[in-house]
Amino acid sequence: MEVTGAGSFLALDTLKNAASSTVKSILHDPESELRNTMERIGFKDINVRAPLKTFIFDGGVNEFRDLMKCLNPFDSLKAKWEEFMDDYEKLNPDAGTIEYRLIIAYGSK
Fold first, then answer.
1. Is 84 exposed, middle or buried (0-12, 13-18, 19+ CB in 10 A)?
2. In the structure, what pLDDT confidence band is assigned to residue 13 with cuts at 50, 70 and 90?
3. I want to staple 46 with a disulfide (CB 3.0 to 4.6 A). Which of 19, 62, 99, 107 is the partner?
4. pTM for the complete prediction?
5. Could you give the CA distance from residue 68 to residue 41 in angstroms, rounded to a whole number?
6. Predicted local distance difference test score (pLDDT) of residue 27
7. For the residues of 17-84, what is the DSSP string, one character each?
8. Using an 8 Å Cβ cutoff, are 84 and 91 in contact?
9. Is 64 exposed, middle or buried (0-12, 13-18, 19+ CB in 10 A)?
10. Beta bridge partners of 47
11. CB count, 10 Å around CB of 24?
């Protein structure tokens, strides 16, 4: 895709804002976003719930650190992993607890 000229910046900014608002919508109201998508592709009798759940690691922060270490796809971080996680813990004292939304959706076509 080639983008040139002053109007291009406006177009790119508009696309960025549209994408940003979609991401915000999905993150803040996943139920409505998924329901709308299901309706758009032809589902009926739709039921969507997204309750907020909390997972507390039994081993606390150390268990969380181990989990994150095994999920790390970047070899370059291995040498500085402990330093990285120390910084993360300072920024997020509740690192041993994760909040997430469990999306439960069903419908018929």
1. middle
2. low
3. 107
4. 0.54
5. 36
6. 63
7. HHHHHHHHHHHH-HHHHHHHHHHHTT-EEEEEE--EEEEE-TTHHHHHHHHHHHH---GGGGGGHHHH
8. no
9. buried
10. 106
11. 10
